[in-house]
Specification:
The protein has a two-stranded antiparallel ribbon with strand order 1-2. It has three helices and two strands, in the order H-H-H-E-E. 69% of the residues lie in helices and 3% in strands.
Length: 147
């Protein structure tokens, strides 16, 4: 038998889990958009999306603070609802983690690619090519854009 205090505690647990589910769903949407921004190389939109993502993460952390439960066993209706919400959250967090991992790998590979392209300019002038296309010891600091 669950007391009134136990019912209130489980009602709060359900409310917090539902709130977290909504927040993680929104976070997943933002991470999906982030992947679109990265693949289209839209750096400005990517940067603009960061504050909202960080705010959602803070709200999730706040939602989890002061999370009290009771020692009483929940009635079957509460237990079923809580179990369902927990399973939904596990799936949503896996999806969000997958998007985040993919996003990190795309950004890392893009930064490495940019680093390789810039390596020629920062290599210290050890060797390069002259105007005739022959290898020379000094690197020309002018970049011919063809314009």
């Amino acid at each position: 038998m669950t007391t009134e205090t136990g019912r209130d505690a489980y009602t709060m647990v359900i409310e917090r889990l539902e709130r977290e589910k909504d927040l993680v769903t929104r976070l997943t949407e933002l991470l999906r958009k982030e992947l679109d921004f990265i693949s289209s190389q839209d750096v400005e939109s990517l940067e603009e999306s960061m504050p909202e993502k960080h705010q959602i993460l803070r709200e999730i952390a706040e939602n989890r603070q002061e999370f009290h439960t009771t020692d009483e066993r929940p009635v079957p209706e509460f237990a079923e609802k809580i179990r369902g919400l927990q399973q939904d959250l596990v799936m949503l967090w896996r999806k969000a983690s997958g998007y985040n991992d993919l996003s990190k790998s795309l950004v890392t590979s893009r930064l490495q690619e940019i680093g390789r392209q810039l390596e020629v300019f920062f290599s210290g002038g050890e060797s390069g090519y002259d105007r005739q296309g022959k290898k020379s010891k000094g690197v020309s600091l002018t970049v011919n854009t063809g314009v």
